[in-house]
Amino acid sequence: MVNRFDGKVVLITGAGSGLGRASALQVAKEGAKLSLVDLNTQGLEETKTAILEVAPQAEVLLLTANVANEEEVKKYVEDTVKQYGKIDGFFNNAGIEGKQNLTEDFGIDEFQKVISINLNGVFYGMKYVLAEMKKQGSGSVVNTASVGGIRGVGNQSGYSASKHGVVGLTRNSAIEYGQFGVSIKAIAPGAIMTPMVEGSLRQMGGENWEEVGKEFVQPNPMKRFGKPEEVAYLVAFLLSDQANFINAAVVPIDGGQSYKY
Ligand code: NAD
């Protein structure tokens, strides 16, 4: 099998858990050099340990940073370029769900918090990474949106606004940067079993969250949660040269649920 990421540098935010970690493992297995960003330093270290088990030769740079802070974003991009000289793939993925509540009770502070991480963080990442990719004349960006970014889910004002915003940012920048050899796309995952989804089920069901989870997936045509590895296969493909002509696309990975609402 061809190693799609031999000699390639991949930068991933939210790499200390869930979809970011699974995607880091996948591209590392295929030869990538990695720059991994997260607020959670311990999560990053666990990801690195897991990578070195499956890809002992992998080069892994860990950068603790808050994606909602523009200066920290600028620095994680600079540190990546200083270390590796380029960025071939950027998985712009860090995000939070926020509390679930009716719109009138959602809370201004909560709304701003979710927007600052999920939307501002994605914008800052694109601002600094796209400048590098434009200079290089190549690169692929995958932003993490959500089914909540293409459909109404309910009780998620901040999340919904931020993820619809990620879809808008993706389409807008894709139109601008295609001419420089850079493609930009988004993924729209449905419910994938990660710590974020566990937290969300705990908000609904407390200690009974696993039972709530079984109920939760019944409307899904495939009647199950997605697995982080399934998202990682998609992300690796979209970050690879094989997907260079896929630009401005928003790819659902949700068992078909978003077509059913
Ligand atoms: P997760 O909680 O397992 O991982 C998210 C990671 O992002 C964590 O390691 C966390 O520390 C990090 N993070 C949070 N805020 C940060 C910040 N300000 N700066 C830097 N790092 C920060 O969640 P996940 O399920 O892997 O989610 C990853 C992305 O996928 C998110 O954008 C989420 O909205 C999106 N998503 C997830 C699902 C799902 O079902 N799991 C569905 C749709 C979209």
Automatic annotation (TrEMBL):
Keyword annotations from UniProtKB, A to Z: Oxidoreductase
Similarity comment: family membership: Belongs to the short-chain dehydrogenases/reductases (SDR) family.
The protein, known as: SDR family oxidoreductase
Pfam families: adh_short_C2 (PF13561)
Domain of life per record: Bacteria
